[in-house]
Write a structure and sequence with these properties.
OB fold (Dihydrolipoamide Acetyltransferase, E2P); Dihydrolipoamide Transferase; Chloramphenicol Acetyltransferase; 3 domains; 6-stranded mixed β-sheet; about 25% helix; elongated
Length: about 375
């Protein structure tokens, strides 16, 4: 995304501000974030008003000392190509804009978008009364009781966040060399541990265990926790496991940071909160960044036998989980029926080779089949 929507100013010209204090609200495709002051001083000049659509990295305000000459900053132009100096505030977030076929851009707040989706309201039929013509929640509520016109079916086009998803996955498909490896894991011990947690009053899901297992395995196999950025292979110093959360018309990937250093109980608590807020579209942009590896579990849907997802760029690998089905297997010369789930690791062959990826997936499988180490 190349533009941002300035929602409202929290501080005003002449106000004293401290470094790190919120200055204004910037609306992104998935959340509303506060832009923080890069320096302490007086807010000398606000260049863009509320409701303005602004290119990313533009100077939107100036912080300095009263009486300081800032004419050079103002006259130098709106867009600053380099990083903002301590005296300037640069817009570094993105714009909430949706395109409705050929009707042009529709500015809408995240809460209004949720209401419109819940009430089945056609955004193209709403006139926004917010700053810059932005559609706000009140506009949607006012439209609820109005009869909706019957629209002639039109050719659908990708827009907004759906287009962002499409562009990123297309980039991954074009650049990464996707290779899948599938193994079956016996989920007997994992199910037992899940039940033990349940009996003690703590809800831990199979996905939580997989996140913990993947995080521990990434420490042992650091090349799977690296990123290929252009021609540079960059090892990541932290482990951030993304959780793919599929909604009816969206896909969000909140990140559990430092998943290798926190307990299974903490992972369960964090993941529950992130998933609930993903479904409510109340995640911040920060909570969806910092991922180094992604887990996508479709096993709970029952019919998904095997799942090979596309790598979330610029990560090196992603783990897809299918259903756990009762299957007869040989155990110490005897036949037993056990719940067997498919684990499919899709890795970028430019970064790691098949043997390394296989050992990495084997380690995840080993931890899931002997999960007591995950609970310690």
């Amino acid at each position: 995304m190349e533009e941002g929507l300035l929602g409202k100013w929290i501080k005003h010209e002449g106000d004293q501000v401290k470094e790190g204090e919120p200055l204004c609200e910037i609306e992104t495709e998935k959340a509303t974030d506060e832009l923080q002051a890069p320096a302490s001083g007086t807010l000398l000049k606000i260049i863009f008003g509320e409701g303005s659509t602004i290119p990313v990295n533009s100077v939107i305000a100036v912080i300095g000392t009263p009486g300081e000459d800032i004419s050079a900053i103002i006259s130098s132009g709106v867009q600053e190509k380099t990083a903002p100096t301590p005296a300037t505030v640069g817009l570094q977030k993105a714009l909430v804009q949706e395109k409705t076929s050929d009707l042009g851009e529709v500015r809408i707040s995240p809460s209004a978008r949720r209401l419109a989706r819940e009430r089945g309201i056609d955004l193209s039929q709403i006139r926004g009364t917010g700053p810059g013509g932005r559609i706000v929640s009140e506009d949607v509520l006012n439209a609820v009781n109005k009869p909706q016109p019957v629209l002639t079916p039109q050719k659908s086009t990708l827009a907004g966040h759906r287009k962002v998803i499409a562009d990123r996955l297309a980039l991954s498909a074009r650049t990464a060399v996707h290779v899948p490896i599938t193994m079956e894991a016996d989920m007997t011990a994992a199910n037992k541990l899940k039940n033990e947690f349940q009996e003690s009053g703590t809800k831990v899901s199979i996905t939580d265990m997989i996140v913990r297992a993947a995080a521990l395995a990434l420490i042992e196999f650091p090349r799977a926790n690296s990123m290929l950025l252009g021609e540079e292979l960059k090892p990541m110093s932290e482990v951030g496991v993304g959780l793919a959360v599929g909604l009816d018309d969206d896909l969000l990937v909140p990140v559990i940071r430092n998943a290798d250093t926190i307990s299974l109980r903490e992972i369960a608590k964090i993941s529950k909160d992130l998933i609930e807020r993903a479904k409510n579209h109340s995640l911040s942009a920060k909570e969806m960044t910092g991922g180094t590896f992604t887990v996508s579990n479709l096993g709970m849907f029952g019919d998904v036998i095997l799942f090979a997802p596309i790598i979330n760029p610029p990560e090196t690998a992603i783990l897809g989980i299918g259903r756990a089905s009762p299957k007869p297997i040989a155990i110490e010369g005897a036949i037993a029926v056990r719940p067997m789930a498919t684990f499919t690791l899709v890795f970028d062959h430019r970064v790691i080779d098949g043997v390394y990826a296989t050992k990495f997936l084997q380690r995840i499988k080993e931890l899931i089949q002997n999960p007591q180490a995950l609970a310690d």
